[in-house]
Amino acid sequence: MEDCLLLDEGSSEMAFGLNVRFTARDETAVRSFDALVTETLVGIREQEPGTLVYVSHAVEGQPLQRIFYELYVDREAFDRHEQQPHIRRFLAAREAFVDSVEVDFLDPLGAAGIPIGVTRDA
Fold first, then answer.
1. pLDDT at 5 > cutoff 60
2. Cα(22)–Cα(33) distance, rounded to whole angstroms?
C-alpha cells in the first residue's frame, strides 16, 4: 500500500474520490451548466481545504456531457463538501440543465502526482 495516497504516513485511511457524469438537456443548458460550475469552483477553492482535486471535463465527441473528477482528503471532507452552501446551490440549480447524473465512487489502489500527507493548505 505504499503507493496509495494516504492522509499521512502513519494512516491507513486513503483519500476518497469519485467521478460524476452529467448529460445536459441541450447546448443552451450545457453552457448554463458550465457557468454554474465556474461559479461553484470559487467556493470550492476558497472554502474547502479537504478538496484536493475538483476538475470539470468536457468529453470529446459528446458536447452535452461533462465529467467531474473529485478527490478529497477523506470521506469526511467529501461529506463536508456536500453540506457547503455553494454546493447545495449547485445541486439544486443543476436540475434545470441536466437530463442525467451518474456517480461512481472510487476506491484508490495507487497514486502519483499528489504527495502523501499533503492537503492544499499544507
1. no
2. 10
Distances (CA, A) of 20 to 2, 96, 102: 27, 17, 6
Q: Which cell numbers in the block locate residue 39?
A: 461559479
Q: Hey, how many other C-beta atoms are within 10 angstroms of the C-beta on 78?
A: 20
Burial 22-58 (b: 16+ CB within 10 A, else e): bbbeeeebbebbeebbeebeebbeeebebbbebebee
Side chain identity at 40, as an amino acid letter?
T
Q: What is the pTM of this model?
A: 0.83
Other CB atoms closer than 10 Å to residue 111's CB: what's the count? 16
